[in-house]
Design a protein that fits this description.
This protein is an all-alpha fold. It has a domain of 51 residues. It contains two helices and no strands. The longest helix is centred in the C-terminal third of the chain and has 23 residues.
Length: 86
């Protein structure tokens, strides 16, 4: 048997292949636990208010009273923040 020759198709022109760019996406969550820092700040503010009270014991209310209010308020807010963050 004789081998049959097949005609090879003729290629004309130029072609291009477009490869799509890979896309990667993701999400991440992070949470910093600041409970220790908040409770430390609360203790500091509480001690500071106590020091101001001790230094000004027996004196009439004056400018130092505002500092006491600021420090006591800070101590309470920091303590609440520590409890919420824990």
């Amino acid at each position: 048997m004789a081998e049959e020759e097949t005609e090879k198709p003729e290629v004309t022109g130029v072609g291009a292949v477009v490869i799509p760019t890979p896309v990667v996406s993701g999400t991440a969550k992070s949470r910093a636990n600041l409970a220790v820092q908040h409770i430390s700040a609360s203790a500091y503010s509480s001690r500071k208010a106590g020091e101001i009270e001790t230094v000004n014991a027996g004196k009439a209310f004056g400018d130092f009273y505002e500092e006491i209010v600021w420090n006591v308020s800070a101590a309470v807010f920091f303590a609440i923040a520590a409890l919420e963050g824990a």
